[in-house]
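Why does residue order matter? Because the sequence determines the fold. Keep that principle in mind as you read this record.
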Amino acid sequence: MDLAKSQLNISHLKMISTIAESETVKEAAERLFITQPALTNRIREAERRLNTELFVRRGRKLIISSAGKRLLHSANKILEELARVEHDIARLTDGVEQVVRLGLPNYSSFKWLPETIQAFAKHMPQVELEINANAQLQPLNALYNGDIDIALICSDNQNLKIDESQYQSMFIHRDELMVCLSNDNPLASKRHLDIEDFKQSTYITNSTVPEKHREYELFFKPNNIIPKKVMQVGFNDAIIELVNVNLGISIMSKHLLLPYKNSHNIRTAKVNSDGLHVYWHLAFAKRENIQAPANLLATALSHFSS
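Structure:
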């Protein structure tokens, strides 16, 4: 493949990405700071260069074609990478020698985060730690694609199963998943909840997509039970507030729930009589410039998250 023969430029990639995000041609043109005729000409130019139709016009809306969808997929990846490169270069001019992206799941407790960032900055002032919460479902893919450099990963075992030829991992600590419920819930007097207790309950979660080594895989799926009703809420704080007024129950990290127990009308109970435990690890691709930041992060996390 000869990159010198590429038919499109950045303006074409921005064009197709913006059109896909816009309701009308007028809106897309305004977001690109060009006139509608100029946008139409840019579309025609791209289609001429590729010798294929990228859009079909239906009224004021442009419907993307199969070829357009393929271009859009790559355009978004290229534009995201370009934005990251520009950000990193800007930081380098400010004296930062390296930017390390840490991928975090949004269901994790973050009470340790400020102290961890401070400790990291103290010992590695030349390295900027950037937090990314968009890689939770497939953290290893995010590592492989270069979207993040280090991932905080949850598993059901202290020894993380990982491709050791490409990745390295460090165990951080053990956590317990607890049932969170209102003090007004009829189940509130129980020290632990069994699978049968969930059959008639409204279950509140931050994602209806089953997440690896979480309650669905470790608790609901083995027992072949799905709660009567599942309510998806995207934020941990929102889950707590809904549980607080007894609109449902949830399963969350014990560390995450601790700050809320004194300020909210909630309590916790074990999942089954033995409890449900998970294990946190740092995982990162085997690259020379990542080893030292990962070691420092692992030390700080082990200290501040315990």
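DSSP finds ten helices and twelve strands in the chain.
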